[in-house]
Design goal:
Layout lengths: L2 E4 L1 H9 L2 H17 L3 E4 L6 E6 L2 E7 L4 E9 H4 L2
Parallel strand pairs: 1-5
Antiparallel strand pairs: 2-3, 3-4, 4-5
């Protein structure tokens, strides 16, 4: 299992959303950390940064070689692609 690290901005993003959406995102993130399962794509132009899709939300994160998933941002899809 990979370890999950949060940036301050990502923590603020989770706190700002409703509880049901936050729990859905946390479950999907833990599932990805344990099994690698999920709708994950590399962002175009940067091979380090990845995107995990959870319903209408997008998690912006990076995986390091030592098994750490660093969650950088969590945005609604209408805000993420602007």
């Amino acid at each position: 299992m990979k370890r999950i690290a949060w940036t301050e901005q990502a923590r603020a993003d989770v706190r700002a959303m409703d509880r049901a959406a936050a729990m859905r995102i946390l479950r999907a993130l833990h599932r990805f950390a344990e099994t690698g399962a999920g709708d994950v794509k590399a962002l175009q132009g940067d091979m380090e940064e990845l995107r995990l899709r959870v319903g209408d939300y997008r998690l912006f994160f990076a995986c390091s070689s030592d098994g750490v998933v660093e969650v950088r941002r969590i945005r609604h899809r209408r805000e993420f692609y602007r």
